[in-house]
Amino acid sequence: MNALIMVDIQNDFLPGGALAVPHGDTIISIVNRLQPFFQLVVATQDWHPPNHMSFVSQHPGHSVGDVVNLDGLDQVLWPTHCVQNSHGAAMHDQLHTTSIAEVFHKGTEPRLDSYSGFFDNGGNHETGMGTYLRDHRVTDNFIVGLATDYCVRATALDSIRLGFRTWLIEDACRGVELNAGDCEAAITEMKQAGVQCVTSARWLAPN
Ligand code: VGL
Ligand code: ZN
């Protein structure tokens, strides 16, 4: 059983959004056309309270991209993004959502961030996605979305850790690239962990 996991394809991560991923919008039509090829489609949504401690606004004197220590974990500081129920947190208008079987929220705890769609950054609390996929007899997770170097990376690595065969559909992902080379490093790390990289051409005819 194959699942398509759509990671954080939300307004705030798209051009014009608070934490825009460069060229993030170019993946949407690819993701829409991929959906019918999968037996199960799920999505994650970054879903922060307004005072989330990953927001630079909660750390006077700091700038976006600074790393602080938060309860023993390294935390990158971001602009305010994906606040629960805001327009920025909504899935992008053009993303087809009718085939989404379940949405998993993450980053809901004010002091704890969650890049992975499976666990928080401390690795202690599950979102329920792992159990859900296992209950639906999923063996293979195909991962698309934003951002390659943060939430896609963390979701793919946890997927491997949980024992799923894991695939990254490379041209259906884009990264933040806070530092040059971050995306390439993330892809190398995913491959080393056992993630298999493919492109949408495996399913789709060229445009
Ligand atoms: C993400 C930074 C902060 C992501 C979420 O979806 O990759 N990145 N929150
Ligand atoms: Zn976030």
Automatic annotation (TrEMBL):
It comes from Neorhodopirellula lusitana. Transmembrane segments: none annotated. It is an enzyme of class 3 (hydrolase). The keyword Signal does not apply. Pathway: Cofactor biosynthesis; nicotinate biosynthesis; nicotinate from nicotinamide: step 1/1. The keyword Hydrolase applies. InterPro entries: Isochorismatase-like_dom, Isochorismatase-like_sf, Isochorismatase_Nicotinamidase. Its EC number is 3.5.1.19. Residues 3-201 form the Isochorismatase-like domain. Gene3D superfamilies: Isochorismatase-like. Coiled coil: none annotated. This is nicotinamidase. It holds the Pfam family Isochorismatase. Keywords: Hydrolase, Metal-binding, Pyridine nucleotide biosynthesis. Belongs to the isochorismatase family.
